[in-house]
Amino acid sequence: MKLEEFYTEFHHWLITRGPNYIAGILIFLIGLWFIRFFKARMRYRMSKREVHSTLQPFFLSLTITTLYVLLTLSVFNIVGWELSFLSVIIGSFGVAAGLALSGTFQNFAGGVLILLLKPFDLKDNIIAQGQDGIVTSIQLFYTVLLTGDNRTIIIPNGKLFNEVIVNVTREGKRRLEFELKLGYIVDVEQVKGIIDNAIKGTKGIIRKPAPIIGVYALEIDGIRFTVRVWVDPADYFDIKLYLQERIVKDLREADVKLPTHHLLPGT
Fold first, then answer.
1. What's the CATH number where 141 sits?
2. CA atoms within 13 A on the CB side of 156
3. Apex CA 161: angle with CA 169 and CA 102, to 5°?
4. Is residue 95 part of a domain?
5. Do 194 and 162 sit in the same domain of this protein?
6. Is 102 among the domain residues?
7. Are 156 and 181 found together in one domain?
8. Is 37 inside a domain boundary?
């Protein structure tokens, strides 16, 4: 009697539920084939469009994982398995993880935006978060700078992307500017000629745009001259030091009086 009941129930299940399971298995197999095909096409398209190498594994993994999850949920739904309890657990875990990792997600989002929008590239000289250095590495969660005094600075991408970034390298040239204050007894044209000769004798100065030498301000205790030239960003500090020293030396040799307390730092 029990065997007959088993066969009866099995026959009933086979008629009512069997087609759903068969459809679920077919959908699962077709879905696996589609995901493998889509993965290969996506990898090819990203390589052809030159998506950043750091982002390719992330986008590929995120997309394929999402497709697997959707396929599994679809098969469960076709078969008729209830997922309400599992959905609650997954949702609760997601909320808890989101709260715990909010800072990490912010850094991750900043890294993705930096790699996509490219406000700077590797080997660019940038000024950000109070740091001035060469970009040596761009990761999903942080960016690494190497400063002029050989310090390694690691900046979280969340903070980096949400603040002002000064890209010194992108335009290919940088303006070097400093001021010199002299007394009213000096000959303005003589001083301008001495500075101009010093500029012409300094290697690495870009001639276009042309250098600017002029009187910036007339103050109670003297005349303030400004000097503006264009240089390659990598040569900025070397040329600045050399040019300032040469101007001071040439002015002294020309017997131009230099009040030492009026020599102003570069801006």
1. 2.30.30.60
2. 10
3. 155
4. no
5. no
6. no
7. no
8. yes
Q: Which sign, positive or negative, has the C-alpha torsion 30, 35, 36, 40?
A: positive
Return the C-alpha torsion angle 228, 148, 260, 220, nearest 10.
50
Which structure tokens are listed for 136?
């040596």
Q: 43 with 56: CB under 8 angstroms?
A: yes
For residues 179 and 225, is the Cβ–Cβ distance under 8 A? Answer: yes
What is the count of structural domains for the chain? 3
Q: Digits of tens for pLDDT over the chain (267 positions)? A: 455 665 566 555 556 566 777 777 888 888 888 888 888 888 778 777 766 666 667 677 777 778 887 888 777 777 766 665 556 556 655 655 554 445 677 887 888 888 888 888 888 899 998 899 999 988 878 899 998 889 999 999 888 988 899 998 888 899 999 999 998 888 999 999 999 999 999 999 998 889 999 999 998 888 999 999 999 988 888 999 999 999 999 999 988 887 655 444 544
Q: What are phi and psi of 32, to 5 degrees?
A: -60, -45
Whether residue 93 is contained in a domain is answered as no
Q: What is the pTM of this model?
A: 0.57
| Domain that includes residue 135, residue range | 118-167
**CATH number, domain with residue 12:** 1.10.287
What is the side-by-side strand order in the sheet with 125-128?
152-156, 142-147, 131-138, 125-128, 166-167
* 180 and 258 inside one domain: yes
Question: How far apart (Å, rounded) are the C-alpha atoms in residues 54 and 12?
Answer: 54
